[in-house]
Design brief:
This protein is an alpha/beta fold and 237 residues long. The chain folds into two domains: 156 residues, no CATH class; 58 residues, no CATH class. It has five helices and ten strands; from the N terminus they run E-H-E-E-E-H-E-H-H-H-E-E-E-E-E. The strands form three sheets. Strands 1-2-4-3 form a four-stranded mixed sheet. A three-stranded antiparallel sheet has the order 6-7-10. The protein has a two-stranded antiparallel sheet with strand order 8-9. Helix 3 runs parallel beside helix 4. It is globular and about 60 Å long.
Length: 237
């Protein structure tokens, strides 16, 4: 069973949180609002990292009320019903509402999927195509569905994406919240960067190294092994 808890309409009572955490092993949640409240325009969004800490909260929904159609990215720990979860979701709401909404129009469906994934990847957020089986997928013919997915994956190839399960991807995102770069030195003569990492991770992660060649900025993805407390990483460039 997945460790990602995604209640329908994001609605969940606090009286169920401890059971979900302790009995079901849920470690991750998906809330754009506070628990114990309905998903409706009059309920405000959750204050949480990385981008919704200081702004005055507006509507939590992905519909037409003020602020609702702006893209959303959450990645931070929350306390709910006596349990702690790592809360994470990505919604590119100003493209097709709060989800992908595919149908039998192959070009339009693939276009929405490509735009939403690119928007997330360009922001270095987890890229997710969220939709519904009963409202959308089951209405699509297998031939059209296959073609839409092929067009989307082909368009994503320049990003060199990885395709983890949701649980694996969420562990990576959580690791960025529980670890970080504490110190860095650069030996330009030897072209060596040394990173001092601190915190802890339970899965291998990555970081970017940006270098300049002439007037061009080069980015390189660096593998970071799982670690506990501290890690020294030496990178040649």
């Amino acid at each position: 069973m997945s460790e990602y808890m995604v209640p329908h309409w994001y609605e969940m009572g606090a009286n169920t949180a401890s059971y979900a955490s302790e009995k079901w092993g849920m470690e991750f949640s998906c809330f754009p609002k506070y628990g114990d409240r309905p998903y409706t325009d009059t309920v405000v969004w959750l204050r949480s990292t990385p981008f919704r800490l200081y702004e005055e909260p507006q509507t939590c929904t992905g519909w037409t009320r003020s602020g609702g159609q702006r893209p959303v990215y959450y990645a931070g720990f929350i306390e709910f019903g006596g349990a702690q979860f790592f809360n994470c979701l990505t919604e590119i709401r100003d493209d097709a509402g709060y989800e992908w909404a595919p149908d039998n129009n192959v070009q339009a469906s693939a276009g929405r999927g490509i735009r939403q994934l690119k928007r997330a990847l360009d922001a270095m957020a987890p890229a997710v195509l969220f939709t519904h089986e009963t409202d959308y997928i089951y209405r699509i013919t297998p031939e059209n569905w296959e073609q839409e997915l092929k067009m989307i994956t082909t368009a994503m190839e320049p990003y060199n994406p990885s395709y983890p399960t949701m649980d694996e991807g969420l562990r990576i995102v959580r690791s960025f919240a529980t670890s970080g770069i504490a110190a860095a030195t650069c030996n330009t003569a030897g072209k060596v960067v040394t990173l001092g990492m601190e915190g802890h991770t339970d899965i291998p992660t990555t970081c970017y190294l940006f270098t300049e060649e002439g007037s061009t900025i080069i980015q390189k993805l660096i593998d970071v092994p799982a670690f506990e407390n501290e890690l020294s990483l030496t990178i040649k460039y």
